[in-house]
Each structure stands twice: as C-alpha cells, then as structure tokens.
Design goal:
Rossmann fold
Length: about 240
C-alpha cells in the first residue's frame, strides 16, 4: 500500500496564504495505537472495504478515511452529517470515532434505499447502531430538516450536489465546524461551484492523497473551517 501524501494549501478569501507539504508516514497526534482493538468492528470495516472494491461501490479508501477519522477525533463533534452513505464505509470510520469518544451522533443520508438498508446492517454488525441514524432521500432536501447545531459535515455524494447540500445546511452549521469534501481531485469540474464558494468565504485547504483504489490512484479532499459570518448591515434609510 502506498504511503499517503498530501499538500495543504490554506486559502483565505480566495488567496493562498501558506502551503505546507505533509506526509502520512508521521505518527498521529492522538494515541490511536494505544486504543484497544475492537476485532468485530475492524473485521466489518475490512469486509466492507473488500466488498466496495469487488462491486465498484465508490468509497474513500483507508488513506483518506484515516485522515477523516483524525479530524473527527480532533473536533469531538456532537452531531456529524454525512451526504452519501453508500454501504457505510466512511460512516463506519466516523462512528467508530464517536464510539471511542463516548459521545455524538452521525446522521448519514443516502438516496438509494437498498444501499441505505445495507449500510444500516453494516453499522449493526459493527456494534455502532446507537451512534448512527441513516436517512433515505435526496440530501439537498433532507438536510433542510436536520436540527442544528451540526458540528461536522462530510460531503461524499454526487459532485454536482456538493454546493446545494452545503447551501441547504449552512445555517445549521456550528461556528468552527469542519466541512470535508471528498473527491475534489477527480471531481474537480463537478465540485467547482462548491469549491469557489468555500474558498471565497472561509479558511479552506486541499489535501492530496495517494490511494490504492481500483478506480483512481490519487485524489484530494477539501477541508474547510466554517465560520458564521456577520450579517451585512442594512443600508441606512
């Protein structure tokens, strides 16, 4: 398996302010290796990984999943929202962190009912059901009804839906909430509107990863720190 590498470029209001090359070979800041290993959960994650590759169910893969889990662990969120459940691969990584933290809930949205049911079964088998709620439907509409505050948002659905999903839930996001968008490398054209929006308004960076996925060997995630912006002053009468 190739070593994960990525280049973080922090962007403020559209201008690059700093770039720092980083490597996935460095130890994580949190002592993940010291945690007791949940053999059942690990086996389910490995099985779902194999199943996704065999069936070409697009998922983030372990390289990006480890980074996603690290971000969840650092944030310690009370409510996480995921757009694009598929059969639950990334959700397993997120919910595992919530279980380790002993707090939080993942609300994950999937438009395909069959895949949603399969994901629910995978969460059940992994012993994570109490930390996950699977919603079935169009995320661009369902997100409008989710109660805030949302402390962490993960976008991994149809590329063209990234921007509508973000707009649908923006007023529910907590100040400082990380917003992670997958596939902004291979999906650069489809996610362009979303990328323009977050880079023009918030601190945002792109992180590149070498992967071992059958469908691509290199991709990126956009990681944005959401901030509640002050409302514009009404014009004087």
């Amino acid at each position: 398996m190739s070593v994960t590498t990525y280049l973080a470029c922090w962007i403020v209001a559209g201008g690059v302010s700093a770039c720092e090359p980083r490597g996935g070979g460095e130890p994580e800041k949190t002592a993940v290796a010291d945690r007791p290993r949940d053999e059942k959960l690990e086996a389910v994650i490995a099985e779902v990984d194999r199943d996704c590759r065999r069936r070409t169910v697009y998922m983030i893969g372990p390289e990006k999943a480890r980074r996603l889990a690290e971000l969840v662990r650092q944030k310690r969120p009370g409510r996480v929202v995921e757009c694009g459940t598929a059969i639950g691969y990334s959700g397993l990584w997120i919910a595992r962190e919530l279980k380790e933290l002993g707090r939080g809930k993942l609300i994950t949205v999937e438009i395909d009912p069959t895949r949603a049911r399969e994901a629910e079964e995978n969460f059940r088998r992994a012993g994570l059901s109490e930390f996950v709620e699977v919603k079935v439907g169009d995320a661009t509409q369902l997100l409008k009804s989710i109660e805030g505050p949302v402390d962490f948002l993960f976008l991994d659905c149809n590329f063209a839906n990234y921007d509508p999903c973000f707009v649908a839930i923006e007023d529910k996001l907590a100040d400082g909430a990380p917003v992670v968008a997958d596939n902004v490398g291979v999906g650069a054209h489809g996610t362009a509107e979303y990328i323009r929006r977050v880079r023009s308004r918030f601190n945002s960076c792109i992180e590149w990863f070498d992967t071992d996925l059958p469908w691509h060997k290199r991709d990126a995630m956009e990681i944005t720190s959401f901030r509640i912006l002050p409302k514009e002053k009404a014009p004087a009468p």
